[in-house]
Design brief:
Blueprint lengths: L3 H21 L2 E3 L3 E8 L3 E5 L4 E6 L6 E2 L4 E5 L2 H26 L3 H34 L4 H30 L3 H26 L2 E3 L4 E6 L6 E2 L4 E7 L3 E8 L11 E6 L5 E9 L4 E2 L13 E9 L11 E7 L6
Antiparallel strand pairs: 1-2, 2-11, 2-16, 3-10, 4-6, 4-9, 5-8, 6-7, 8-10, 11-15, 12-13, 12-16, 13-15, 14-15
Helix pairs in contact: 2-5, 3-4
């Protein structure tokens, strides 16, 4: 009896190993169908804010169902509103500066420049007359060399002031340089970009659901000071529903992307229609969850089957059976 016991243990282990292979890697029945075993994929999203701040509102509890676009949480928006207001003021200032440069000089500035030209011309004409008289006096021997030199200097200085006044008038009439206008235009564009950034950051104080799902974890409470990226919710995605399964290498030729399949569970009699959406191009060892000494060298390929018209009865992580009919849906 004692000699038979090890033999019985070995036989039992072999039977268990065969069952495990049949259960998790796949089986064929009657040569007509291929049966695989897998699980509904667990697809979760860790949700957090892109900006730091003080958590003001947490709108949902664990287990709540949320829809796409639902507001899940809210940071205190006041600091970000102030940033938007400051950016708006900067844009207004840049717009005013650009309008000023594009408008050019005001009529009053042009008239003032013209008045300076008239004044400079009158001074120059008077200096020219004085210089002429001093030259005539010197020719008659009644003049002074010192006074003549002074008259010459005054005439030259007045001529220079007249030239400067004429140039100022031309610049005033022409307005600002094109380079100055281009610089002001670029400054306005930069301020508008900063305003857009401020508005984006304000919008980021609201956390919205990226897809339909169920709240799995509520990780924070109102009043918490958050850094950017800290998770506040974990969301379980409801659609699309995928099944992850593995197929043994010898059966790989019996399937292809787009091939139809039937999915069933242990908890109901309903069968779900599915379709292969992905076949891994890389072989891998049998997953650790089903790995035994005998299976360690078995190579399998991972499949993703997209379930059509899935309902709430298919829960994430649930084991399922996937059946393919070789007699239909050929490649």
């Amino acid at each position: 009896m004692k000699k038979r016991l090890p033999v019985i243990v070995v036989i039992a282990a072999a039977i268990v190993g065969a069952i495990v292979v049949w259960r998790f890697v796949g089986e064929t029945a009657d040569g007509d169908s291929l049966r695989l075993y897998g699980n509904v994929d667990i697809r979760e999203v860790a949700l957090g804010f892109r900006v730091p701040g003080t958590l003001a509102v947490m709108a949902f509890e664990e287990g709540d169902t949320v829809g796409t676009g639902s507001t899940l949480a809210q940071l205190d928006p006041e600091p970000y509103r102030e940033h938007v207001q400051a950016a708006q003021a900067a844009v207004s200032r840049a717009k005013a500066q650009l309008r000023k440069l594009r408008a050019g000089s005001r009529p009053q500035e042009v008239r003032r420049a013209e008045s300076r030209v008239i004044e400079a011309r009158a001074v120059h004409e008077n200096a020219t007359r004085i210089l002429t008289r001093q030259k005539e006096l010197m020719a008659d021997g009644a003049g002074s060399q010192r006074i003549l030199d002074q008259a010459i200097a005054e005439e030259r200085a007045s001529a220079a002031r007249l030239d400067a006044a004429l140039e100022d008038l031309d610049l005033t009439r022409e307005g600002f340089r094109s380079e100055d206008i281009a610089a002001a235009d670029a400054a306005l564009a930069a301020e508008r970009a900063r305003l857009a950034q401020a508005r984006t950051r304000l919008a980021d104080t609201q956390l919205t659901a990226p897809a339909d799902g169920v709240i799995l974890t509520r990780a924070r409470e109102p009043g918490t000071i958050l850094a950017a990226g800290m998770p506040v919710y974990t969301l379980s995605l409801r659609r699309p529903v995928w099944v992850r399964a593995y197929i043994d290498e010898p059966d790989l030729g019996r399937i292809h992307p787009g091939k139809s399949a039937w999915i069933s569970t242990d908890s109901s009699d309903r069968r779900y229609r599915g379709q292969i959406g992905f076949i891994s191009p890389r072989a891998e060892f049998t997953p650790k969850t089903v790995q035994t000494e005998a299976l360690r060298t078995s190579l399998v390929y991972r499949l993703r089957i997209v379930v059509e018209e899935a309902d709430d009865a298919l829960r994430q992580g649930m084991p399922v059976t996937v059946t393919f009919d070789d007699a239909s849906d050929g490649p």
